[in-house]
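Continuing from the previous page...

OK, I double-checked the sequence for LLM class F420-dependent oxidoreductase against my notes and this is the correct one:
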Amino acid sequence: MRISATLYLTDGTIGPARLGRELEERGFDGLYVPEHTHIPVPRETVYPGGELPPECARMLSPFVALAQAAAVTERLTLGTNIALVAQHDPIDLAKQVATLDHLSGGRVTFGVGYGWNREEAEDHGVPWPRRRAVVRDRLALMRALWSDRPTAYEGEFGSVRSSEVHPKPSLPPRKRLGKAPLYGPRTLIGGAAGPGLFAHVAEYADGWMPIGGSGLREALPVLRTAWAEAGREADDLYVALTGVTPEPGKLAHYAELGVDEVIVQLPAAGEDEVRRALDGMGRYVTPGKDVTSRKRT
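Thanks. Re-ran it with the corrected sequence; updated structure tokens here:
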């Protein structure tokens, strides 16, 4: 089971280059960063975790930050947890993701989500009740651009002509029964367990990225059933838990359930505090290992 790390990376925390080096030197498998473009004031939407962390309004662009981390590391995988796809122009986002994947040597995991902040999404022109449909549509458009030959796409929320576009993401296309293969980097959908979410994961993603492991023992069999019914190969399903506080028994439990990756939560703090947190987590990682493999471990 892979052990990666995440934090709310801001203009006041440890920088992405320093963090990337610290993680790779200590044997962590990956770095994941979340996304908010802005937090409108006033705001009526309630933050799911209670009081809104002030770091949400100060987050760095995940793709710029991950590019800086990529430049100073060799093995560390680089991911979003999550990217707010509905809030992006899909043609531009496809280019950003593919460029990061190319420059990093195929180290990108694309965690995507639907968002929780209605005001933020509406400022981007996202029709809030249709945001899940927007994400699905925009990912389909992006995959047309990532495909191995010029491919047009006409969707409800956007379209693109058959186009020459490079670079291409490094991960080979994944087969789907009776459907076109999935192109692009490993794509994980974040969100709470449920039949609707699991249907989307099985239809157009490579796996699931929930926050924490509550209810995981009951949820994973449901997800695996939806995956199999969609004609997907069992070994292709990838599950990454994010926002985890590591404990030996907890990690062993996740490994037993077949979780592929645990993303531990670091404090949104400066270099000294983050290093202390990493020191306390050192027993969970193996320095010097090669973490570039795309296979389940």
